[in-house]
Write a structure and sequence with these properties.
single chain; about 100 residues; mainly alpha; about 70% helix; globular
């Protein structure tokens, strides 16, 4: 089966969009999460504080972040963020805290 020019362009756009999404976790964190997670617990990068959270898995952490927990309001108070944005930021924090 041959892909048309449109098919190749679409496939390329999907690949580029996926790469851009992976990079967005850092930008989303910087713009929306860092102000709290650089000074409040769990601080991004604090391996001991994050270890039990990381053990729950990214999907569980994402769901908790979307709902809110303790002092953190739903979506960290950023209702305009999509669930995918939240997951990207959570993944960024997990990666920085391993």
């Amino acid at each position: 089966m041959k892909l048309s020019t449109f098919g190749w362009l679409f496939a390329g756009a999907v690949i580029v969009a996926s790469a851009a999404s992976a990079a967005d976790g850092s930008a989303i964190y910087d713009a929306n999460c860092a102000m709290c997670h650089k000074v409040l617990k769990p601080k991004t990068g604090d391996k001991a504080a994050w270890a039990p959270l990381i053990a729950q898995g990214v999907d569980t952490l994402t769901a908790t972040t979307i709902k809110g927990k303790g002092m953190m309001p739903p979506k960290g108070g950023k209702a305009n963020l999509s669930d995918a944005d939240i997951k990207a930021a959570v993944q960024f924090m997990v990666d920085k805290s391993k």
